[in-house]
Design goal:
alpha+beta, D-amino Acid Aminotransferase, Chain A, domain 1, eight-stranded antiparallel beta barrel
Length: 664
């Protein structure tokens, strides 16, 4: 067994690998960029080596720096995690040439399966079902359009070296095929250094189901059941679960056996995943790709089998045999994972960066609730790397129990300082289509065609939001009233009458009276008994309203509150009746007109300004491109216009709402 390993990654996956390594008595080495000098994985490792500036192409993606760090520290092996160099065949081969073990498959397996075009040809030889398509590299947008027409729309335009939703577009017509090809090619070159593109038929109403495989160097290869990954947004997974609510035992066995056949065809030795697209009606399944690495969603497989996949990877890399056969692998209960990302679901999921002012995790319960994370309260979420903050994983004896546990855990997860997708995840957890298990990869696009909004998930009783806001505000005022040192005769004495203004602009008069264990709130002629052990300053509030349990997250900004309840978020303005009257007397100041500016929708790097001063622009034309958290975002003109001035240049780092272009 290795005595020291280096983890060539960052964030939660680096921390995840270190936990297992430490459990096995193995010393760990972290590598870090200048932006990550205070990161959790650096603190957690036994040793750490700085490998360069913040951009990943100058640090985490530089193989020579990783190898130099191995030699400097005496690390015998490298675990690549996922992303970065985890599926880089040249990196794996170079490590072997330097006598350093790659904790993953052999370089020839990475090469065979990392190339999506070659992997499809291998799959055909191994008698694995594949999707119809054009399996050679395409050179021009015009050729892409011609091939797409031949296959028949809709089609998927994919980067040969792509993954994680990057370098992938769906086209329903010639224009989308032309634009999608160019966009995929650019994104693939920037993300993977390989801009080869191919096209395949897009299966409508598909489910995305993957099989976890595991092989060793002694000829053994098994599958550890499946993971359902159909809940996706823009081809990136949002929720994963194991097993799939869709598969029957016969289909599971057939898919598992084909996955193993493919793994054996390339002498696969490590953990890997074979991804399939499955038809929603006939359960016909087709090979998509093989990921020659550990997957983000591996914890759900660990939950239902009881196996530590990272430990098994390390043991296989050290030459050990798998300790079990196919017939020995259990399938116990149900597991789910939510990816908690730094993105704002109320602004079309734009990336969010900044400091984690508040970061409180749900209580971990062995075998029931688990959080894999690589950040901490007070830490910084950087624009340079992936948006994932944490993975929240739960396990239950049934799918229904797993859903209930996930709902509770999401309610207990508190993030402030940066936006997160927790509210959206909570909304999905109570969506009827998800709860029923009858969904496909189009669920999010179909149910939220205009993006996510609180109005999409109205609270069963909006009065609950009003009463909670008023009670919380009353508690805040009472705390202020108790501050010592107030001048005699000028003490702050909060009243009991308030006006609550919902985000729809409606005002509601509320009376709040203190009661044993909480408050009595009168609203619209009805009396609500709120009972809780709250203490103001906490973000999470739990209690009962008229004996009904509830859970709220409250964020306060001045007199304004944002309340979250199982996916519903509403902004409320809570004022005393007098304050509301004074506000009505104040003159209204119109906000500045920004309609003639292109504003940056997110913090990020301005990679291209596609227009010049004086240029006539038509609606739909590309104006600029911004890169944030490894994703390229294209900004297009909403209407015909004329460019007046360029206010930012390519290469600049932009803040949210920073003007980029002024129009006449």
């Amino acid at each position: 067994m290795f005595k020291k390993i280096l983890i060539a990654n960052r964030g939660e996956i680096a921390c995840r690998v270190m936990k297992t390594a430490h459990k096995m008595g193995i010393t760990t080495v972290a590598v870090y960029s200048e932006a990550d000098k205070d990161a959790m994985h650096v603190e957690m490792a036994d040793e750490a080596v700085c490998i360069g500036p913040a951009p990943s192409k100058e640090s985490y993606l530089v193989a020579d720096k990783i190898i130099a760090a191995c030699k400097q520290t005496g690390a015998q092996a490298v675990h690549p995690g996922y992303g970065f160099l985890s599926e880089n065949e040249a990196f794996s081969r170079t490590l072997e040439e330097h006598g350093i073990v790659f904790i993953g498959p052999k370089h020839y397996s990475v090469a065979a399966m990392g190339d999506k075009i070659a992997s499809k040809k291998l799959a055909l030889k191994a008698k694995v079902n594949v999707i119809p398509g054009y399996n050679d590299a395409i050179d021009t947008p015009e050729q892409a359009v011609e091939i797409a027409r031949g296959i028949g729309y809709p089609v998927m335009i994919k980067a040969s070296a792509g993954g994680g939703g990057k370098g992938l577009r769906v086209a329903f017509n010639d224009q989308e095929a032309h634009e999608g090809f160019a966009s995929c090619k650019t994104e693939a070159k920037n993300a993977f250094g390989d801009d080869r593109i191919f096209i395949e038929k897009y299966v409508e109403e598909p489910r995305h189901i993957e099989i976890q495989v595991l092989g060793d160097g002694h000829g053994n290869c098994v599958y550890l059941h499946e993971r359902e990954c159909s809940i996706q947004r823009r081809h990136q997974k949002v929720i994963e679960e194991a097993p799939s609510p869709f598969l029957d035992p016969a289909t599971r066995k057939a898919m598992g056996e084909q996955a193993v056949a493919l793994a054996r065809a390339v002498n696969y030795q490590s953990a890997g995943t074979v991804e399939f697209v499955v038809g929603g009606k006939d359960k016909a399944f087709y090979f998509l790709e093989m990921n020659t690495r550990l997957q983000v969603e591996h914890p759900v497989t660990e939950m239902i089998t009881g196996y530590d996949l990272v430990e098994l990877m390390i043991r296989v890399a050290a030459g050990e045999k798998l300790p079990f056969a196919q017939k020995d692998i259990p399938l116990n209960g149900w597991a789910m994972e939510c990816r908690i990302n730094a993105e704002d679901p109320f602004r079309n999921f734009l990336p969010s960066t900044g400091r984690l002012v508040k970061y409180a995790l749900p209580t971990a319960v062995p075998g029931a609730v688990r959080v894999d994370t690589g950040v901490y309260e007070g830490g910084e979420i950087s624009m340079y790397y992936d948006s994932m903050i944490a993975k929240l994983i739960v396990h239950g004896s049934t799918r229904d129990q797993a859903i209930i546990r996930m709902r509770d855990a999401l309610n207990a997860f508190v993030i402030r300082g940066v936006a997160s997708n927790i509210a959206f995840q909570a909304a999905l957890m109570q969506h009827p289509r998800f709860v029923s298990g009858n969904f496909n990869t189009g669920l999010i696009a179909e149910e939220y065609p205009k993006g996510f909004n609180a109005a999409d998930v109205p609270h069963d009783d909006p009065a609950v939001l009003v009463t909670v806001a008023a009670a919380v505000h009353r508690q805040y005022l009472m705390r202020n009233a108790s501050i010592s040192g107030q001048m005699p005769g000028h003490e702050f004495k909060p009243g009991s009458e308030f006006v609550v203004r919902l985000d729809d602009g409606a005002d509601h008069e509320v009376t709040v009276e203190a009661a044993v264990g909480g408050w009595d709130v009168t609203f619209a002629g009805d009396r609500y008994e709120i009972r809780s052990d709250w203490q103001f300053g906490q973000i999470l509030y739990q209690g009962t309203i008229n004996d009904e349990p509830f859970c709220m997250q409250v964020e306060r900004r001045g007199l304004k509150y944002r309340l979250s309840h199982w996916g519903t978020q509403m902004d409320l303005m809570v004022m005393t009746a007098r304050a509301a009257h004074l506000q009505a007397l104040m003159p209204h100041k119109a906000p500045p007109d920004m309609s003639k500016f292109l504003l940056s929708p997110m913090p990020g790097l301005l990679t291209q300004v596609a227009v010049r001063a004086g240029q006539d622009v038509k609606a739909g034309e590309v104006l600029a491109k911004i890169e944030a958290m490894k994703m390229e975002n294209i900004l297009k003109a909403e209407r015909d216009c004329v460019v007046d001035k360029l206010l930012a240049n390519a290469g600049e780092s932009l803040a949210v709402d920073q003007p980029i272009i002024a129009f006449r």
